[in-house]
Amino acid sequence: MAKSTYFFDRITNQIIGSHVHAEKDPNGSIIPADSDISNMWESIRQGTMWPHLLEKVTDQNPANMDYVVSEEISRGYNEYFCLEIVPHEKLIKSEEKERCCMHEVNTEGGVTLDMQVCVKTTQEDCVDHVKDKNVKSIECEALVECNFGRLIPRDGRVQMKNSKANFQWYLPDDTSKEPARCYVKDPSGEILISKSLQVRCC
Length: 202
What we know:
The strands form 4 sheets. Strands 7-8-16-15-11-13 form a 6-stranded mixed beta sheet, with no helix packed on it. Strands 6, 9, 10, 12 and 14 form a 5-stranded antiparallel beta sheet that branches. Helices cover 5% and strands 45% of the residues. It is elongated. The chain has 202 residues and is mainly β. The chain starts with a strand and ends with a strand.
């Protein structure tokens, strides 16, 4: 399947646009082709090409714009990556805030949380993980990291298929003054998720 390009804001981590290329096949039909913007990236970043993208970036600063290539055909402009904890009996409380999702987890005896990365779309100025709808068909590789506990798989590399990727996060029998954090990044190390995920271990 042809590759498409997603542009995102490095401050908010929200997808601000997408691009897919098309070519004519020998029969004259229009078919999807790999999107390769490497030769024109600097013009896009500076706003001399497709200026509507730079207008959506925080402070309209070119340094705040980046892109990721995905193994799928893009579907919309208001899409973003989201990290969620699958409901668990030891998940005490969850609260979505403006810039993060806070959770309280009973880690007595240790706990393994099932985690899911997904892609959602919104028509609003602020994302809402509960209300926003899921997006399908995105396929790409992501890298998961945490500052406490350990991940399964251990190297944190997960494959997103049909806009979803799953992994596990083991939290040991311990309490923490500072929240445990989990991140999802693209292969270059840039954070993808729209809001940070934090867990208070109690």
